Amino acid sequence: MPEGDTVYLVGKRFDQALAGKTLLRGQFRVPQLATVDLAGREVLGVGTVGKHLFTRFSGDLTLHSHLMMDGMWDVYPAGAKWRRPGHHARVVLTAADIQAIGFRVHDLKLVPTAKEHDLVAHLGPDLLDPQWTDEHAARAAAALAADPVCELGLALLDQRVMAGVGNLYKCEICFLLGVTPWTPVSEVDAGRAVALGRKLLLANAASGRFDQSTTGHLDRNRKNWVYERTRQGCLRCGGRTLVHTQGYDVQARPTWFCPKCQSGPAPAS
């Protein structure tokens, strides 16, 4: 599933392409919205909350979408050939000179703009919220610490705690805290974990790049400390990086860590 900064950048690109333009075509290719036509509506803007996208139209109407694991919004000049298969397109929004295609986007809903919040009311504070305050940080830290025996990696992925952290940032936050992702939440500084999450997401959102770095390096072999470094090893100590599955069923994620740089429990090799 994309990280929150990826969704933020998708929304920003989408907004820059269509905001202020009137749709000539607004077609849905999903059964529940197949009869809806958005032609004639102006795109007022695109915003994100965590991993949720909200496309706002004139007439007090908002389209909600979620990328999940395989979704993407692509932007093309009008009439250009799509880079993805046409049968994967679920939304087609076309203005005079531009088109935005939602490929395999999920949870599509049209709601009154004033009701947007109802769809994300269950989420914790958005780490990329431009109105972020100390109160947001305190609320996220309290939610993270609420279940002291929960494994830190699982708690970080819980969007009800704070919105925006995905598997990459989960692994890297745990590394920077010096503990394994299986460490109980009670053994870490929840406030520091929240601050690290916000710092990493903000840095990558500001960079404008979809290829995230948590180390400050842009070289693909040095951009992360442990994430997906099974072959290269830990960027800090050079030692072996291990990967185990954390979570169950649809929540299961491959999880990287360095047994030398990170203390705490871990599955048996």
The biggest beta sheet reads: 4 strands, antiparallel
Largest sheet, spatial ordering of strands: 1-6-7-5
* Silhouette: elongated
CATH topology term of the largest domain = Helicase, Ruva Protein, domain 3
Instruction: Give the rounded overall mean pLDDT.
Output: 96
Number of domains: 2
Helix content: 10-25%
Architecture of the largest domain, according to CATH?
A: Orthogonal Bundle
Going by helix content, strand content and strand pairing, the class is: alpha+beta
Low-confidence sequence ranges:
none
Q: What would CATH call the class of the largest domain? A: Mainly Alpha
Cα distance spanning the termini:
26 Å
Compact overview of the structure:
A hairpin with a 3-residue loop joins strand 3 and strand 4.
List keywords for this structure.
single chain; 269 residues; alpha+beta; N-terminal domain of MutM-like DNA repair proteins; Helicase, Ruva Protein, domain 3; 2 domains; four-stranded antiparallel β-sheet; 23% helix; 21% strand
Question: How is the secondary structure organized here?
Answer:
Blueprint: H1 4-18, E1 25-28, E2 43-49, E3 52-57, E4 61-66, E5 72-77, E6 89-94, E7 98-103, E8 106-111, H2 134-145, H3 152-157, H4 167-177, H5 190-207, E9 242-246, E10 253-257
Antiparallel strand pairs: 1-6, 2-3, 3-4, 4-8, 5-7, 6-7, 9-10
Helix pairs in contact: 1-5, 2-5, 4-5
Q: Could you walk me through the main structural features you see in this protein, from its secondary elements to its overall organization?
A:
The structure is a single chain. 23% of the residues lie in helices and 21% in strands. It is of the alpha+beta class and 269 residues long. It has a 4-stranded antiparallel sheet, covered by helices on one side. The chain has a 4-stranded antiparallel sheet with strand order 2-3-4-8, covered by helices on one side. β6 (89-94) and β7 form a beta hairpin. The longest helix has 18 residues, at 190-207. The mean pLDDT is 96.
